[in-house]
Amino acid sequence: MADLKSTANSSVKATTSVQAKKSSNIISLxxxxxxxxxxxxxxxxxxxxxxxxxxxxxxxxxxxxHKGPKSALAGxxxxxxxxxxxxxxxxxxxxxxxxxxxxxxKANGKGSNAEFVRKVQFFLADKNVDAAxxxxxxxxxxxxxxxKAGLRKYKAMMTETELTTEQKVLAIQKEVEEATALELPMLxxxxxxxxxxxxxxxxxxxxxxxxxxxxAFSNLxxxxxxxxxxxxxxxxAEALYNTALGIGSAALAIVTYNIFTTKIDGITYGIDESxxxxxxxxxxxxx
Length: 287
Hints:
- The protein is mainly alpha-helical and 287 residues long.
- Helix content is 78%, strand content 2%.
- It has a two-stranded antiparallel ribbon.
- The longest helix has 61 residues, at 225-285.
- It starts with a helix and ends with a helix.
C-alpha cells in the first residue's frame, strides 16, 4: 500500500503543471515611504503655501510658523506635524485599494464563476476535456487557472493505467491543492496594509489630538486676553484635524478591507467548487 502511494505521489510531482508565480514586492516596499513623503509635500508646500496665510512665516524651513489661514483647507496646516503622517496614511490606503481592486478584478475572471463551473461540468459529463480546458482559457482568473491545472491532470489520469481510480482522484486533488496554494496568496497580498492602517491611523490621529490639547492648554497658561483665546483655538483645531484625518483613513481602510475579503471568499468558494467538480466527475466517469 505504501508503494502505491509513493507511486501516486511521484507521478504527481513528475507531471505537475503548476508553476510558482513570480511576483514583485516593489509596491509594498516603496509605496508607504513615497506616500508619507508625498503627504509631507502636500502639507508643507500645497496646504502650507505662503499665500494661504495672512501672516506667513517667510523664513520657511521644515515646519514654518504660519498664522492666519485664509481658508478651511489652509486651516488643516495648523493640525501640526502629525498631519502629513496622516495624509501619508490616507494615500497608502488609496494606493492599496486601487492595487487590490485591480488584482481581485483580474482574479475574478471574465464572467460568472458559477456559470463557468457549470459549463465545465457539462463538458466533463460529455467527456470533452479539451473543450473544458478551452473554457478555462476564456474564463481566466484564479478559478479558471486552478480548474485548468486540475483538468490537465484530469486528462493525464484518463490514460494512466498503473494507478487505481482512487489514486488518480488523489492525484487530481493534489494538483488542485497545489494550484490553489499558489493563487490564494496573490489574492490576500497587501491586505495587511489595510488591516493595519484600520487601527494605526486612529492611534496616530489620537496622538495628534493629545498633542493639540497639550499645546492648547500650555499656550492658554502662558498667554492672556485675546491671544489666549487664539492659542486655545489653534490647539483645539490641531486636535480636531488630526482626529478627523485619523478616523477618515481608518474608516476607509476598514470598509475596503471588508469588501475585498468578501470578494476573496467568493473566489475561494469558486476554487473549492471547481476542485470538487473535478474529483467527483472523474470518480463517477472513470471507475
